[in-house]
Amino acid sequence: MPELNVSIVTPSKKVFEGKVEYIGAPGKLGEFGVLPGHENFITVLDVGLLEVQPKDQEKMKLLIVGGYFEVTEDNVFVIADEVMAKEDVDLEKAKENAQKYKNELSSLSFDDANYERVRRLVKKYESMVELAS
Question: Which end of the chain is more exposed for a tag (fewer CB within 10 A), N or C?
């Protein structure tokens, strides 16, 4: 089966590099997936779970907090602002923060200057809970 060469990095470290059969990511316009032979493109990432299916291994899930995703031929480059694995998550703290920021978000209007920042924090902590559960 054809494979994708995937590289996932943050400004401070290389998170993953290897061959995969599939990768799915949270784009600003919705979630999407890439298989070998996908059309070339580049997009902005949102906050959410990145799913990676390495060849002959279990699916890996990572929390990704923004960044860019590029496909060129069968190469995928993920440049993320922040990446977390399940073992990096403090589940109770994530639940507390998710509720705290949900409460704050409910008091903001859509055109408030802080709305997008708080929305991203809600999504980050909710995704952390999902990842760790």
Answer: N
What pLDDT, on the 0 to 100 scale, is given for residue 8?
A: 98
Closest listed residue to residue 85, CA positions, set 38, 128, 27, 37: 128
Asked whether the beta carbons of 62 and 52 are under 8 A apart, the reply is yes
pTM of the full structure: 0.89
**Total domains, the chain:** 2
In this predicted model, what pLDDT tens digit does every residue of 118-130 receive, in sequence order?
Answer: 999 999 999 999 9
The maximal CA–CA distance of the chain, rounded, in angstroms, is: 50
Structure tokens at 70: 């590029």
Indicate the angle between helix axes 115-132 and 91-106, nearest 10 degrees: 150
96 and 76 belong to one structural domain: no
If you search the block for the tokens 């760790």, which residue do you land on?
132
